[in-house]
Design goal:
5 helices; 144 residues
Length: 144
């Protein structure tokens, strides 16, 4: 009975040693994963900031484009509607102005604006940091 009890103690001691080693490895792996997660969170924060900066630049550029389009449209309207303007222009200049003032310019500008804003909205929805959230509940489970 004593020998069998000693064998059981030895088996239990070996099992405890093995479990301690597994526990150390698991803690080391956890530390590595937590360090990696922290690094990825920093990268995510930088990426979100970069997206925000680029979106602001894009909005400023779009506003400037619309401003310039309005100016161009006003100049075209002014040149084509003024009686002295149409007479002072050469035939080639008049045809260029008519082409610019025609439906193609308005349609092209509107279509370009629609496609760029649609693409921008799509990109913005994909990259919106409000859509990306980090759930800490998994961390709570691991740490317990």
């Amino acid at each position: 009975d004593c020998i069998q009890l000693a064998r059981c103690f030895e088996a239990t001691r070996r099992r405890c040693c093995r479990l301690e080693q597994e526990g150390r490895r698991a803690r080391q792996q956890l530390a590595r994963v937590e360090a990696e997660r922290a690094a990825l969170e920093v990268k995510l924060k930088h990426a979100r900031n970069q997206v925000e900066v680029e979106m602001k630049k894009r909005h400023r550029a779009e506003a400037e484009l619309e401003k310039q389009e309005r100016k161009l449209q006003l100049v075209l309207e002014f040149l084509t509607r003024e009686p002295w303007g149409s007479g002072a222009l050469s035939g080639e200049q008049s045809s260029v102005l008519n082409a610019l003032a025609g439906r193609r310019l308005g349609a092209a500008l509107a279509a370009g604006r629609r496609s760029s804003s649609a693409a921008g909205e799509s990109c913005q929805s994909l990259l919106s940091h409000s859509d990306i959230s980090y759930d800490h509940t998994e961390d709570d489970v691991v740490r317990r």
